[in-house]
Amino acid sequence: KLVCDYLNLSVILKIMSDLVEDINSRLESLPELFLVTLRENDSLIHFMRNFIINILCEKKNIEFNFKDSNKEFCKNNNIKDGVQLSKYLKVKGMLMNDHERNLLNSKKVLIIAEEQFSEKAKSDFIKNKNLLDMYTYKYIEFFDSDFAHEIFFQLDSGESTFDKLFSNDLKEISNVKSYGKVGPLDLAKINPIIKEKILKTNLNEVIAPFKAGDFWFLIMLEAKKEAQFDELTKTKMVLSLFDEWISVLAVKSIQKFLLSN
Prior knowledge:
By secondary structure, the protein is of the alpha+beta class.
């Protein structure tokens, strides 16, 4: 495994090194004033990202069926016919040739991303699976500890439930700051203290009152949906890794170009 990781990293670094050289040689052919203007307008990094992606796509030869790709694009964007597509492209300031090139490059980017980052995506998924699972929980946020514990004992003993408490407007109670149901969402978007508590609890178990920031919380995990490394998840992850890679390449290319000029 370590050997495979090392070889994969070596390949990526070699590609990066070759690309940076290619990028900078092409940058040399551009008017200096053009690049200076981009830099002054804080547009250089955006230009560089697109510049690099176009170079990568130019080097990648694939089979491409515009009709099928366009049909899928129209379906995903709720475009019914050619008239609507023409209106869509006009609003975007694009010609049909631009649209076709964008579809082709999108397919190429996905293929490149999968070739370079599929293994890392799978490794990251396994490592961070708990954070990718989707959680739904109910909570009550209190101003003080005493009242939080009083409500906890009611819930823990079965005397009351979250739904019963929610049916009575808790906002009318001065000791309650907020309440409700959260999710489904992944733990990356949850308060770190709440995240730690949820990871250690079981379904439908009421977590004893705990403090997060200036307030006290009661939480019950209602549902957990296990993340799957399916095609959709894999695609999102490899494209995210590709995006990070392009950002690194763009910064390195800009730094090298500025130093040499």
